[in-house]
Design goal:
Length: 166
């Protein structure tokens, strides 16, 4: 056991800074980057991931990249509906959207949901953002899988972004 600990410690000191830099570039946040690297090392330590010596550097960087992508995906899911639908652009048409009142913009989005999205996608979007229901609650209420809920939200938001981010 002593030998395993020593090897782990050497690996940590050898690879930590490189892994941290990669995570920081992807995440743009020091604390999240440190957490991502720690998560990878924790999985190595508990034995849930096996590491081959000949490819350890590449494997560790791949693990960190994947962990960072998961964190980024979590961030996106946590953003509120407004920031997901309307983003700032410098072209004149976007300025027109920004000049609209929140009430007018909300009405336009609601109308688009009613007229342009499938009924099921519209229901899912409304339940998620209007009623603030969790994916699990939506899944249970509509009798569909969590992945179906995610698919409807992703498709609905993609169409809304395309419409309102011109």
């Amino acid at each position: 056991m002593q030998d395993r600990e020593r090897q782990f410690e050497q690996l940590f000191h050898l690879e930590y800074s490189r892994m941290y830099r990669a995570a920081h570039i992807l995440l743009g946040d020091e604390d999240e980057a440190k957490d991502a690297v720690q998560d990878v090392f924790a999985r190595l330590w508990d034995g849930s991931v096996n590491l081959r010596e000949e490819s350890q550097r590449t494997f560790l960087l791949t693990c960190v990249r994947n962990r960072c992508l998961n964190i980024i995906a979590q961030r996106r899911r946590q953003q509120d509906s407004t920031s997901q639908i309307v983003t700032e652009h410098e072209d004149a048409e976007t300025e027109t959207w920004q000049e609209k009142s929140d009430e007018e913009l909300t009405e336009m989005v609601q109308q688009y949901i009613d007229e342009r999205l499938t009924p099921q996608t519209g229901r899912v979007i409304r339940m998620r953002f209007d009623d603030e229901k969790s994916y699990k609650d939506i899944s249970h209420s509509l009798g569909i899988s969590l992945s179906a809920v995610n698919k409807h939200i992703v498709q609905g938001l993609r169409k809304l972004r395309q419409q309102f981010n011109r």
